[in-house]
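Hi V.,

Quick status before I head out on leave. The structure for the redesign project is tokenized and pasted below; the design run finished overnight.
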């Protein structure tokens, strides 16, 4: 009997924002370990959009380097600034098409696609992957002050994994600052508040 085969697709900034809203950071070594226990991981992809002017000096560069050296396919795209029509400058991330193409290409070789994002723009991807007979799992959160997952994406998924439940297995605490220095961690403070 062959092992259950899967591929992971990580929307880097979306996953970081969700974990931050929950009060922890993702430990990607633990994340890989957690999901390898669930089946055979054929491939893992990490997508990051970086502003044009920050390509060389970005804070995520050490992370993307580590991921690349540890077997994860890293896709970095240049984000473009645009005017949103209301006078505000916004950053347009342009990797969604690339992620979708990569997922559809690999879907015929795996049993399950795992998407780490709550972005509703991925609803058509969920439908297309499922039409190919592949399970579609979404990892995001409903427990943040504002839900980080689009309702349509959560409803389309064969399985929804709450990131907050995975916190103990894939996260590390984020130090919190007070006027006099660090007093603990956001993860501890969040647990204490419950």
């Amino acid at each position: 009997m062959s092992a259950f085969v899967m591929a992971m697709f990580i929307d880097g900034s979306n996953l970081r924002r969700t974990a931050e809203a929950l009060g922890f950071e993702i430990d990607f070594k633990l994340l890989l370990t957690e999901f390898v226990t669930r089946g055979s991981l054929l491939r893992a992809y990490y997508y990051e959009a970086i502003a044009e002017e920050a390509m060389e000096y970005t804070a995520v560069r050490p992370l993307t380097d580590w991921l690349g050296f540890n077997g994860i396919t890293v896709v970095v795209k240049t984000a473009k600034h645009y005017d949103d029509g209301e006078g505000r400058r916004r950053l347009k991330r342009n990797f969604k098409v690339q992620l979708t193409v990569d997922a559809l290409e690999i879907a015929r070789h795996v049993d399950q696609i795992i998407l780490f994002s709550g972005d509703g723009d991925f609803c058509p991807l969920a439908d297309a992957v499922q039409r190919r007979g592949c399970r579609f799992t979404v990892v995001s959160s409903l427990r943040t002050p504002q839900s980080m997952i689009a309702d349509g994406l959560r409803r389309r998924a064969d399985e929804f994994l709450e990131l907050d439940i995975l916190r103990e297995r894939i996260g590390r605490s984020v130090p919190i600052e007070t006027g006099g220095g660090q007093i603990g961690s956001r993860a501890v403070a969040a647990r204490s508040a419950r």
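Above is the designed sequence. The helical segments are 12-22, 28-36, 61-69, 96-106, 123-131, 151-156, 163-170, 186-193.

G. will cover questions while I'm gone.

Best,
W.
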